[in-house]
Fold this protein.
Amino acid sequence: MPSTSFTVNGKPVALGADPDTPLLDVLRNHLGLFGTKFGCGVEQCGCCMVLIEGSAVKSCGQAVSTVAGKAVTTIEGLGTRDNPHPLQQAFLDEQAGQCGYCLAGILISAKALLDENPAPTRREIALALDGNICRCGSHARIIRAARSTAHMRAGAPR
Ligand code: FES
Ligand code: FES
């Protein structure tokens, strides 16, 4: 079986998995990165989002062969419990979530947005998160947390 080489959270990996294996399965089953969640498996819910070269992508619909030579970032690469990413801290501060199942994907989508557009409007945040479903209905707090991160970075009042 040919191997696929790429980086995950800055670390090089080389895997002999079937090239058609969904990236989500490789992350969870081969690399033990369980932060990225399986929801629908058909690119509808967004809870499997990861960054590929900085863009938010649904990893359930991405064959591992397509990330050869690329940089993949999962939720584990954003921050740690002791040193959370500002988005993670804002989500905690706003209590933006209930069960939390959607949040890894939402944080990844929000990070991709803020990296590209550091001062998004509420509408731009809502549009960027359009591919992420939160079954608990925490959207208002999620958007508030993303806005608060953007305002904090810009040094502007909320
Ligand atoms: S598990 Fe990938 S979009 Fe739902
Ligand atoms: S917090 Fe439960 S699905 Fe979003």
Observations:
- The pocket of FE2/S2 (inorganic) cluster (ligand 2) is lined by residues 97-102, 134-136, 138 (CB under 6 Å).
- The helical segments are 23-30, 86-93, 103-116, 122-128, 139-154.
